[in-house]
Amino acid sequence: MKYVVVSGGVISGVGKGIIASSAGLLLQSKGLVVSSIKIDSYINIDAGTMSPLEHGEVYVADDGGEMDLDLGNYERYLLTTLGRDHNLTTGKIYQQVIDAERVGHYLGKTVQVVPHVTDAIQAWIERVARVPVDESGAEPDVCTIELGGTVGDIESSPFIYALAQLRKRAGKGNFVQIHVSFVPIVPPGASGEQKTKPTQRSTGDVRRAGLNPDLIACRCAVPLDPATTEKIASMCSVEPEQVFGVHDVSSTYHVPILLERQNFLYAISKYLDIPSSLPRTPTQRIADGSHMWKDWVDLIQSQEAIQDTLSIPIALVGKYVSHKDAYLSISKSLEHAAMYCHKRVEIIWINASDLDPESYIDSPAKYHKAWHDLCSARGVLVPGGFGVRATTGMIKAINWARINNKPFLGVCLGMQLAIIEYSQSIGIEDPGSEEPHPLAKNNVIVYMPETDKDKLGGTMRLGKHPCIFQKDTEWSKVRALYGPVSRIEERHRHRYEVNPDMVDRLEEAGLSFVAKDETGKRMEIVELRNHPWFVGVQFHPEYLSRVLRPSKVFLGFFAAATGTRCLEKVTEALEQGCRSLERIDSI
Which of 116, 527, 540, 582 is catalytic? Predict the structure, then answer.
């Protein structure tokens, strides 16, 4: 097993996840099987109970693991399927060590951070790194490991010590460390000077902590000056060929190409002793490795030629829009759909609270701007969320999309609120949900009986579950995108569901539940028949959207927002197996 460890310094959010994903993608282009592990030093068992406003979105795996959002980057870039164990936290390690101590595993010894915790970290990494993660079913050749946080944080110390020990255990030619640093420009602007001191200090910190960077990736606003590269190399005791610049680009999807042009793959391959040519197994070295890289480059480069006039404005009406990472997978899924359609997406972020008529009293300017932004959009998306706050504004947005024939997509909470809005329109008295409207007379959304109301962590309906298309729904626009199948599987994360007792009444009034779970009692997809695109899904299709394999739900929604003809072409393209609409003809 070969390991690529990515650490970060100077500031958090410097781009470790993107660089780790890019390294994995480049290794895949050689035909290698690549897995990924994200280390988070917080004491939480997982990210499931964290606020989206503090930590960003909670990403969900097939097995129901609630994980850090960086795991989504790995899956989107690498077309892999990771599990809950690929996200390693302090909480998980300490829980494992304490459970082992309670049953006498350590035979009476004093349990300490070194060696017991650090040994547990290494054992976890070595075990999980070998778990198959792609369609080949082969054991991975390489595992990228992202060390979350910033080197120097006290809570990351055990992980750094463990990784230093892992380097010795892996041996020469099986371990490379990439340190990601930040190069500021002082004063900010085109005439400023690129400062290397933060990188010098950061590299010294990681060395004192026990790791020795082999490669240094420098995040900066503009390309590194040759003089800056030389100075970093000189002051950090590396060669200039070991310093790479990662400047701001129009899309994070350009980063792998940017690194490839600097011979990043060659540098990694040298440290990992990867030969220039590899034997053709397993599965003919993941047959599409080089082809996938070509598709990636072609797709990203084709985006550069798209004019801004081809941007499609989509209103994202949510309650966490002040922290856009709360909807990271949503925004990425829209980007994937836009790239497939050879368009750009312009996401209009709307705070749902500002659409509530009561907000007019406090801030009429925000109220009018929010409604102007909504009315300017070509499509309306209401994502998931929890709690009562801002739900009135979301329902107002859904109502506007429905009566004005604007393409609408509701995800999880968005679907549930769409059903409440429709219930209001057909005269159901005081319809509501047990979550935000517990005292409503007719709750069309109810609590799932098998979930635990009193415990938050890991108690929802999580992970991949089947959705069965119902009879006589061949007219469905969303069903047509999935092709000639009656069963699909998508990832879920919810505690509430459509009230089974209200389904017949809603369907009689024109709201069609085109897909249900395997029991036929849990509603999965709702759709209005005589509407350009009015779809709600109980699952989270954004978790399965990939750069080279967009979510069909998001693809259909975006195409409908582009125009009826585009949706027809997308449906036709999927039937023909085309990776991009431009391979058929322009719209």
Answer: 540
* Segment holding 243, helix H or strand E: strand 243-247
Q: Which residues of 541-556 are buried (b: 16+ CB within 10 A; e: fewer)?
A: bbbbbbbbebbbbbbb
Work out the angle at residue 84's Cα, subtended by the Cα atoms of residues 82 and 101, and round it to the nearest 5 degrees: 140
Domain containing residue 478: CATH number: 3.40.50.880
**Statement to judge: residues 136 and 235 lie in one domain:** yes
Number of structural domains (the chain) is 2
Degrees, nearest 5: CA angle 491-73-525: 25
Of 296, 316, 350, the position where a domain reaches its end is 296
One of 467, 542, 566, 582 is an active-site residue; which one?
A: 542
**Alpha helices (H) along 287-435:** 289-304, 328-340, 359-362, 364-376, 391-403, 413-425
* Active-site residue flag, 412: yes
| pLDDT tens digits, one per residue of 213-236 | 999 999 999 999 999 999 999 999
The two three-digit tokens of residue 504, written as one number:
């017949």
Tell me which of 143, 218, 412, 566 is the catalytic residue: 412
Ramachandran bin of 138, using left for φ above 0, alpha for ψ from -120 to 50, beta for the remaining angles: beta
State the CATH number of the domain containing residue 96. 3.40.50.300
pTM over the 0.90 mark: yes
Residues 6 or more apart in contact with residue 111 via CB below 8 angstroms = 97, 101
Burial of 8 (0-12, 13-18, 19+ CB in 10 A): buried
Q: Are residues 390 and 434 in the same domain?
A: yes
Domain assignment present for 301: no
Q: Are residues 286 and 379 in the same domain?
A: no
Structure tokens, 531: 């509407």
Do 350 and 243 belong to one domain? no
**Is 304 annotated in the active site?**
no
> Can you say whether the dihedral through the CA atoms of 37, 43, 49, 51 is positive or negative?
negative
Measured at the CA of 483, the angle between CA 481 and CA 485, to 5 degrees, comes to 125
Of how many residues is the chain composed? 587
Domain span at residue 452 reads: 306-583
pLDDT of 586 over the 50 cut: no
pLDDT in tens, 116-127: 999 999 999 999
Active site residue 86: no
Domain end position, chosen among 251, 278, 296 = 296
Encode pLDDT of 383-399 as tens digits. Answer: 999 888 889 999 999 99
149-164: pLDDT as tens digits: 888 788 889 999 999 9
Provide the mean pLDDT of the chain. Answer: 91
Find, among 263, 248, 262, 252, the residue nearest to 300 by Cα: 252
Same-domain pairing of 288 and 314: no
Closest CA relative to residue 222, chosen from 189, 256, 260, 255: 189
